Every structure is written in structure tokens, then in C-alpha cells.
Amino acid sequence: MVVRVETKDDLAVVTIDNPPVNAASQAVRAGLLAAIAETEANTSAKAVILCAEGRTFTAGADVREFDKSPMEPHLPDVIQAIEDTIKPWVAALHGSVLGGGLEIALGCSHRVALRSTRFGLPEVTLGLIPGAGGTVRLPRLIDPLEALNMVTSGKPISATTALNLGLIDDIADGDLMACASALARSAANARPRTALRHRNAKPVMDPTAWEAAKTGIITKARGAHAPAAAARAVQAALDLPADQALIQERETFLTLKSDPQSAALRYIFFAERSASKLSELKDMEPHPLTSIGVIGGGTMGAGIAAACLLAGLPVTLAERDEAARAAGQDRITAILDNSRKRGLIDQDKQEALTAALSTTTTFEALTETDLIIEAVFEDMELKAQVFQELDKHIRRDAILASNTSYLNISAVAAQTRHPERVIGLHFFSPAHIMKLVEVIIPDNAASSVVATGFALSRKLGKIAVPAGVCDGFIGNRIMSAYRRECEYMVEDGALPWDVDQAMRDFGFPMGVFEMQDLAGLDIRWAKRKSQAATRDPAQRYVHIADKLCEAGRFGRKTGQGWYDYAGGKTTPSQWVENLVLAESARKKIARTPISDAEIVQRILSTMQAEAQALLTEGIARRPGDIDVVMVNGYGFPRWCGGPMFLKNHPSVD
Ligand code: 3H9
Predict the structure, then answer these.
(1) What is the 3-state secondary structure (H, E, C) of 572-591?
(2) pLDDT score at 218
(3) Mean pLDDT, all residues of the chain
(4) Ligand 1 pocket by C-beta < 6 Å: which residues?
């Protein structure tokens, strides 16, 4: 039974039990309708508590049902039936109260939650708007501007915020059911509350802020359809009587459900969850992890160390000398400070995390560490030295991970006496924020070591994707290929800012040339110089980036790169344009204009061809893994699903 009803003294308790996340599937919806009938008829129950078994209250509609035609009873009708009951319904909430789950809670007359509960309407992240009254009931309960933020951002809020906004009646710090029972009994003895759908929407307190928020949502959405639709739905909820707004909301929800963008977003949601499920690791126990070592306290190392600390893992940071150690420690302190300022941790937590960090200039301090992540400069010789040295000091069963973004991990592993314990964990910068980790699996790696790499990634809240060993793994290899194509286009007839504009219009947050300026052009220049001797002379090579570097134009940090940055403003550079035209002329290329559509098409085809090569070579396992990497690490617009999804679904735009 996915929904059961029990009588406890003078109360009825309705429990949803549909693991893993108590999604509001057809069986749950039917179970709730039956529970309404049963509890209304139960003369000994004067109020009802609605709760859920397991780790969470309902996390929303069952997204797997969205590919089928809607099945009765529909969620809006079930929620309306809860709202129309004679008896009060108290939602006792824990875990993630999301989407349809929050909409069910809004149908209840009262809400109480554990302090750890998170509340949200994440439908926009699936290309949808709430379809069971969320846009209509929420602004009848809380400040419309807060409702607008929740509905259009999809971001969850904490129980404390929910209480402050008036979304819930109380927080239970101890026994949730005891708190819900007390609330249910007092509700049964009080005047019934007016259902949200029969209330007026709350007034907009600051019309200027309201209009600015709506404009901001459309700008931020870039090409995504759902956020603007969500904003319009909340506006309609203020302008129309609730019953009309509910009908309109439902129509928009159903229209968006068949929008290819929603199909793409649902696909990537499930692809992210499948990426770390490897059949060969099914029954593999990961090693226990109680302490992490990080070698190198630069931007990457400090970010990785902070990510581990924030996930509750004590960290030892090792650097080569005292000055580098102190600088690394300062970087981590700055990240933790920032996390406190952003409200992610409080002062006490920051102090506890700082105490969980130790720093050192010797590898002896890592003798008892379970897993060590190397994040030193991308230089094979340096990494080889670090691994040889670590191998002398660490425990026999300790795991060694390299954060290299393109070097050969098998060659790094060969520096140690136990290469089977070496893997790659390729984090993205800033490592405490970016969700993606490529787990690089050398042929010799032990399965339990690989399983531990995935377990650590999950503990850090990351999306982990397996990849084989090759230059650049999945993401950087595709990135190199399409960056090369973009440089060809610049020689063939486009200017760098034409390419960037076309990419932004497609939905990337940034074009490939702006991104290089941000990252700095010198690192890739050094890599190109080191590869010069082995480069295939028959391969087309564009010299423009080298010439920028020779002129000292390393990007934003030097005030000039592909663009000029005088006065902090990004402007197309005449100097670069002259250089581009001169290079085309030198190579006798007759420049011809390239349309935005062609620019995007050439980028996509290059990505898809390289992705196909990665699959053929077995570096990437599934097309979905490639899409997860490109969406989460390289700014590929999520609502397009990724290059591989787009290949099979060209109608997404
Ligand atoms: C909605 O509600 C529309 C309504 O407004 C209107 C309706 C008319 N459905 O993420 P995890 C699966 S739209 C089906 O690894 P966690 C997931 O695939 C919905 N399946 O766990 C995985 O399966 P598997 C709005 C779902 O602890 C397993 O559960 N709601 C759903 O890291 C565990 O998931 C959302 O968008 C679902 N709704 O995180 C919430 N959710 O093991 C989406 C999860 O086979 N869910 N699964 O791979 C989440 O954000 C996270 O899953 C959650 C738990 C935070 C709940």
C-alpha cells in the first residue's frame, strides 16, 4: 500500500510510502483520494496528519509518468479534495518538500516541518511550471515577490526561511509527529481556516521591485521557456480569481510538458542520476572515508579542500613550502568566509570547519589519510615526483587521486608501487561550487577504488561521470575540438565576437573566446608549445592565439586578450581584427561571412563528431554521460539537453 491510514487516538494519520522519494504517482494520488474518503468517514478522528515514510516527504510528481498521457486522478483534483475536507489536515514535513509535494502541503490547512526540511518548486528546472496550484496558492500564503522567486528560480528554501515567510506554521526540533499531533488537536478545536484557493492573493508591496524581478527573470532565462511562463503564471494568480488562475496554470503546465525543452531537461535530470551507476560497481563496497589529503593549495586545491570540509570531511592540505602553505590556507579561509556571508554556514560551523583543516609542508602528515587528491601544476614531471614521494609515506590501502585535467593518469599511476589504487578526479573550477567531477578510470584501477571515487563525489554533492584515459578526457577533449573549429571559423570569415555572440544567442553563458580571456591564454600557449614538436604538420593550425600571447595579450588579467578590457569594459579589439585579417590573407584564405546559424551548426557538429569518437574509443560510456559533462562543466544550455540529445532531437531550441 503506497498510502495507508491509521487511527491514533483522536487523530487519523495518512502515510505516503512510495520509495525512494515518495513521488506522487498515480497509485499515490488514488491512495490519497481513498484516504480522504476514509478519514472523513472516521468519526473518532477529529483531524488528519499527512506524513511520509522514509527519507523525505513527497519530492513531487512522478516525473517518469510525464512521457505518458495523464492518468486519473489528477494531482490538482486530489489537492482540491484535501483542501475541501471538513476536518483540518496537518502536513508533517521532512526531507525535500518539492514540486507537487509542496503543492499537496499547500492543500493542507496547516504545515509543520523538521528544521532540516527544504521546500521548493523546482518545476522550472524540468522545463515546467507547477501544475497543481503552486503558482496560485503560494502567493495567497506568502509575499508574492518571494513566491515569484521560488517559482521562477526553482531553488529550495530552508525551514527557517519557510517559517519566516509564513509558509509553515511551526518547526519541530524534536518529535515531528508529536508536534503535528498538538497542532492537529488545536486546529480541530479552532475556527476552520479559509482554504488558500478561497483567499485573495497577498498584495505586491513594492511594484518597482516586482517589475524589475520579472524583467530580470526573462533576461536570466537566456533561451529557456519555463521561467518566463512561471512568472506569467504568478502574475495571473494575482490578477485573476483563483479558480480561473488554476485552470490557466494547468493549461500552461500541459503545454510545457510537451515542449521539447522539457523533454530535454527531464532527460538530463535522469542522465545525471544514471551517470554514476556503473554495472561493474553494483555490489562494490567503497572504502570508508574519514580524512582527505589535498596536495597543492592553489585555486583548484583550495576549492577541493573547501568542498571536502563543507561536506564534513577533515582535510590535511600539503604544500611545498611555508609561503605556499600559508597562501593555500588563506584561500580556504576566504572560501569559508564567503560561504558564511552567503548564509550557507554560520559562525559556529565556520569555526568547526576551520578546526577540521590542518596544513603541512611534509607528506609525513598524510600517513593516516584515507584518500589524497593531488592538485599541483599541470606538469607530468612534477606530478610524477609527487606520486613517487607520496607512495613512500601513505598507508598501503590509501587511495591516490589526481585532479589533472588532461594528463595520462595511467602514467602517473605507474610511478607508484600500487597503481591499482590510483584514479583521476577531475574537478571544475571553482571546485567548491561546480557540480561536475569526471572520475577517470585507468585500466589497472581496482573496482573498490573506483567505487570510492564515486562515493566521495556523491558525499561532496557532485555529479560524477566516468571517463577513460585520454588527452582531455570527455569535456576538455570536446572543448579542444570545438575551440579549434571556432578558430578555423575566425580564419575563414567570422570575427571572435561574432562567434561569441552566436554562442550566447544559442544559450551558452559565454562564448569560447570570452571564456579563454577569462581563464587566461598563457596556460594553453605553454601546452601548445610543449606539443609543437609532435604536432602533425598536415593538420590545420591557426596561429592567432599564439600571436596574441607573443604580444603579451593573456586575457582579462593583462587587460587585453581576444578583447580589450580598458576601463573594465569588454570591447572588440581593432588590433585583434587586424591580426585576424592579416592571418587569413597570409594563408590566402578568401574570407566569407558566416551566419550565426552556421556558426552554431559547425560548433554542434564538431562536438557531436568528437563525442562519437569518445564513445567509439570507449572513453565515454553513454551519450548521456557526454551531455551531463557538457551541460554541467561547459555551459551547454541545459534546456537543449546536450550535444548528443540535440543530435537526435533537433527540434529543441
Ligand atoms: C512536479 O512536481 C509537477 C507538479 O507541479 C504538477 C504535477 C501535476 N519522479 O536524486 P536522487 C528518483 S515536477 C520520479 O538520486 P537524492 C531518481 O531518479 C517534479 N523519480 O536522490 C532516483 O532514481 P534511481 C518536481 C524521481 O537523495 C531516486 O529517485 N520535483 C523523482 O540525491 C533518488 O533520487 C522535482 O523536480 C521524481 N520526482 O535527492 C524533484 N525524484 O535511484 C526532483 C527523484 O532509479 N528530485 N527520483 O536513479 C530531486 O530533486 C531529488 O531526487 C531529491 C532527492 C532532492 C528529492
Answers:
(1) ECHHHHHHHHHHHHHCCCCC
(2) 84
(3) 96
(4) 20-21, 23, 56, 59-64, 75, 96, 98-100, 103, 122-123, 126, 130-132, 134, 270, 273
Amino acid in the structure at residue 149: N
Side chain identity at 92, as an amino acid letter? Answer: A
Q: What is the mean pLDDT of residues 577-590?
A: 98
d(CA 585, CA 340): 54
Q: Measured in whole angstroms, how far is the alpha carbon of residue 433 from the centre of its chain? A: 9
Q: Is residue 96 within 8 Å of residue 157, measured between CB atoms?
A: no
User: If you compute the radius of gyration of the chain from its CA atoms, what whole number of angstroms results?
Assistant: 28
Sheet holding 89-93, edge to edge: 3-8, 11-16, 47-52, 89-93, 110-114, 170-172
| Close Cβ partners of 315 (under 8 Å, ≥ 6 residues apart) | 291, 292, 293, 294, 305, 308, 309, 356, 357, 358
pLDDT of residue 653 exceeding 90, the answer is: no
Distance CA 330, CA 335 (A): 9
Residue 316 and residue 394: Cα distance in Å, rounded?
13
Torsion, CA 635, CA 640, CA 641, CA 647, rounded to 10: -110
The tens digit of pLDDT for each residue in 25-50 reads 999 999 999 999 999 999 999 999 99
| Dihedral (Cα; 351, 352, 353, 358), 10-degree rounding | 90
Nearby residues of 152 by Cβ (< 8 Å), 6 or more positions away: 124, 217, 227, 230, 231, 234
CA-CA distance, 111 to 195, in Å (whole number)? 13
Q: In a mutational test of the pocket of ligand 1, which residue from 2, 21, 249 has the highest number of ligand atoms less than 8 Å from its CB?
A: 21
CB 401 within 8 A of CB 301: no
Q: How far apart are CA 495 and CA 98, in angstroms?
A: 45
Q: Which atom of ligand 1 is nearest to the CA of 250?
A: 8
**DSSP characters over 488-542:** HHHHHT--HHHHHHHHHHHT-SS-HHHHHHHH-SHHHHHHHHHHGGGS-TTS---
Distance from the alpha carbon of residue 327 to the mean position of ligand 1, in angstroms: 41
**CA distances for 71 relative to 27, 28, 61, angstroms:** 10, 12, 12
d(CA 263, CA 253): 13
Q: What is the pLDDT of residues 419-436, one digit of tens each?
A: 999 999 999 999 999 999
